[in-house]
């Protein structure tokens, strides 16, 4: 045990001397990994070798990440800050990490994120924001989120999530939502629609369990029928649809106003659209039209058949009468008429 410790500490000292490894960290040169786990660090260590690809900072007490904190290590691919005390993320915290693929911020104290925070991470693939205290997420995670395949926001304090944010992540494969106080009032329809389409496209999610309102508590959002949202004001539907299609800033600001409104369904402005009920009723309408069409078609065919049969029968009967009865009467009539005529005369 003592030998091990001695060996480890001598390696640390050696590394530190050879390549400028930060105090308290282990630098593995071949894997270009710097391991600073469980060291009681309160800040991002300095003197991390510039060629580092993996920086492990988990299980420390780091509470602040300064602007340009990682400018010394621009090649980082994996940055693990899980289980720390980060509460404020300055918008330039991750600036310059052009190759960063995995950013793990789980188990921190983050309650707020700026929309520029992840802007300079064009290769970001996995973003773990789980187990924080995030109340709201911005409408975008920046202008460089096209490569994100995994997003975890589980174990936070999110009541809602803007569909626009999710739509700005075209390559998302896994999204983890669970254990948030999701508010399943009118505004959630956008999220429900998105989630249905995401799962349909083969995406993976742990689902959204409603927390409020009371009558939907504990219910899976996907199983809350759209009919429940009938009461949502239709006027809001246009706003929401416009929002989805045009991303108009005017509409966005009007949505933002609604974010501050926590009253729920009783409030009109809180309610987003119910775009889905339309497709549903449309589908019903189409089904009704099709069924009606088929039934009418069958009835029409039967009527046509009956008419044709009737006409044919009538024609045949008429012909028969003409051919077999008419000659008789025609032949007889002159003879019969004459006696009549003569009798009359
Ligand atoms: C989190 O870090 C602390 C030290 O800061 C450690 O004692 C604890 O075990 C870690 N938790 C997990 C789940 O790793
Ligand atoms: C976090 O940022 C806000 C403003 O952005 C500031 O008021 C607050 O003091 C900061 N908290 C810490 C712990 O730095
Ligand atoms: C983040 O770290 C935690 C443990 O600290 C781990 O369970 C989780 O899988 C990591 N997330 C990602 C996206 O790698
Ligand atoms: C970030 O939010 C601000 C307002 O908070 C907004 O003006 C800006 O356009 C947003 N940026 C992006 C990239 O969405
Ligand atoms: C993304 O946003 C950052 C900061 O907001 C800006 O410096 C950069 O030019 C933007 N990139 C693109 C491609 O729009
Ligand atoms: C995704 O990453 C590739 C490199 O892996 C990069 O060329 C591309 O620009 C990135 N896409 C976006 C939308 O940032």
Keyphrases for this structure?
single chain; 345 residues; alpha/beta; Leucine-rich repeat, LRR (right-handed beta-alpha superhelix); 2 domains; nine-stranded mixed β-sheet; two-stranded parallel sheet; 6 helices; 10% strand; disordered C terminus; binds 2-acetamido-2-deoxy-beta-D-glucopyranose
Shape field: elongated
Roughly what is the average pLDDT, rounded to an integer? Answer: 76
Helical content class: 25-40%
Distance between the termini: 152 Å
Give the C-level CATH assignment of the largest domain: Alpha Beta
Largest β-sheet summary? 9 strands, mixed
Number of strands: 13
CATH architecture assignment of the largest domain: Alpha-Beta Horseshoe
- Percent of residues in β-strands: 5-15%
- The poorly predicted ranges are 235-239, 241-280, 325-345
Radius of gyration: 38 Å
- The secondary-structure class comes to alpha/beta
CATH topology of the largest domain: Leucine-rich repeat, LRR (right-handed beta-alpha superhelix)
Integer tally of domains: 2
**By CATH's scheme, which homologous superfamily of the largest domain applies?**
Ribonuclease Inhibitor
Widest sheet: strand ordering = 1-2-3-5-7-8-9-10-12
Domain LRRCT: 180-233
Protein name: Leucine rich repeats and transmembrane domains 1
Biased composition (Basic and acidic residues): 261-275
Organism: Chrysemys picta bellii (Western painted turtle)
């Amino acid at each position: 045990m003592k030998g091990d410790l001695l060996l480890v500490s001598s390696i640390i000292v050696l590394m530190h001397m050879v390549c400028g490894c930060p105090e308290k960290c282990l630098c593995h040169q071949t894997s270009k990994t710097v391991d600073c786990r469980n060291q009681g660090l309160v800040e991002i260590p300095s003197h991390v070798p510039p060629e580092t690809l993996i920086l492990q900072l988990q299980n420390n007490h780091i509470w602040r990440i300064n602007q340009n904190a990682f400018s010394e290590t621009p090649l980082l691919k994996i940055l693990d800050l899980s289980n720390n005390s980060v509460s404020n993320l300055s918008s330039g915290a991750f600036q310059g990490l052009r190759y960063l693929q995995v950013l793990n911020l789980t188990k921190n104290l983050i309650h707020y994120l700026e929309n520029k925070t992840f802007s300079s991470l064009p290769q970001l693939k996995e973003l773990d924001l789980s187990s924080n205290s995030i109340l709201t997420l911005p409408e975008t995670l920046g202008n460089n989120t096209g490569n994100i395949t995994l997003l975890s926001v589980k174990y936070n304090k999110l009541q809602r999530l803007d569909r626009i944010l999710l739509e700005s992540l075209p390559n998302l494969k896994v999204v983890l939502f669970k254990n948030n106080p999701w508010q399943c009032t009118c505004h959630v329809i956008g999220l429900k629609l998105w989630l249905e389409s995401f799962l349909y496209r083969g995406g993976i999610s742990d689902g959204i369990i409603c927390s409020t309102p009371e009558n939907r508590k504990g219910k899976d959002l996907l199983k809350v029928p759209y009919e429940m949202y009938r009461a949502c004001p239709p006027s809001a539907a246009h706003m929401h649809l416009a929002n989805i299609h045009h991303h108009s800033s005017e509409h966005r600001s009007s949505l933002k106003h609604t974010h501050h409104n926590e009253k729920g369904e009783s409030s009109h402005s809180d309610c987003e659209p119910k775009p889905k009920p339309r497709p549903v009723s449309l589908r019903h309408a189409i089904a009704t039209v099709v069924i009606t069409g088929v039934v009418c078609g069958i009835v029409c065919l039967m009527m046509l058949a009956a008419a044709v049969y009737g006409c044919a029968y009538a024609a045949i009967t008429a012909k028969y009468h003409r051919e077999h009865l008419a000659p008789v009467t025609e032949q007889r009539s002159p003879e019969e008429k004459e006696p009549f005529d003569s009798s009359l005369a």
